[in-house]
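Figure 3 (text version): structure tokens given as input.
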């Protein structure tokens, strides 16, 4: 007969501990607010990823109270352009929850006009402080673009956006992933007057990095 406590018992005990500790016990390490500076917002993201990659996530803002709190209005502190890859769930890898991140995802994390419009909405209308472009190791879309094999349907439409990075990387998928993050950061700053103005005014920071599928760590990319 099993003598280990049932997992649900541990969950109930944890909930009781949190209830005893007060309403802030499940909150993020610091409150997400409109007066965060762009640099502070970026630091929050990296701190979340460090917790996640260390196997010590807080999993903040994922309870029903938070759902209720953000239902009337959202004020995410970061907007994301990430890949659609099932192994890169943005809220989980940055240890955030409901209402924290405004996320767009598309294979190869490329800034199509619709994606750019969504990111502009998150930054200009919702007031996010960081625009983060996240690539990842062994990206299938980048790998396919490097190989340039024939693909069905409209998959090749992604290649148009990835081509400059693929050319610069000369067959190296890892280099192409990093170069694509840089290119998308540049494209968003330069091709979007809205994002460019927010950056010039010091209200938005454009940053990027590469998520490692094997370690859970995000390595920043200069750009
Ligand atoms: Zn990918």
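Below: residues designed for each position.
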């Amino acid at each position: 007969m099993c003598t280990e406590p049932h997992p649900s018992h541990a969950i109930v005990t944890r909930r009781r501990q949190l209830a005893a500790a007060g309403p802030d016990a499940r909150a993020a390490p610091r409150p997400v607010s409109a007066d965060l500076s762009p640099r502070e917002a970026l630091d929050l993201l990296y701190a979340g990823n460090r917790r996640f990659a260390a196997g010590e996530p807080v999993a903040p803002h994922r309870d029903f109270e938070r759902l209720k709190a953000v239902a009337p209005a959202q004020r995410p502190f970061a907007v994301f352009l990430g890949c659609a890859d099932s192994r890169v769930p943005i809220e989980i890898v940055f240890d955030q929850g409901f209402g924290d991140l405004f996320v767009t995802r598309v294979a190869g994390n490329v800034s199509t006009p619709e994606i750019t419009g969504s990111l502009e909405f998150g930054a200009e209308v919702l007031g996010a402080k960081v625009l983060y472009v996240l690539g990842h190791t062994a990206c299938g879309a980048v790998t396919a673009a490097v190989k340039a094999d024939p693909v069905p349907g409209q998959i090749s439409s992604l290649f148009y956006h990835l081509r400059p990075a693929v050319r610069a990387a000369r067959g190296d998928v890892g280099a192409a992933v990093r170069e694509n993050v840089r290119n998308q950061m540049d494209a968003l700053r330069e091709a979007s007057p809205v994002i460019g103005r927010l950056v010039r005014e010091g209200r938005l920071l454009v940053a990027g990095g590469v998520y490692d599928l094997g370690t859970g760590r995000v390595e920043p990319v200069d750009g």
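Residues 1-31 have pLDDT under 50 and may be disordered.
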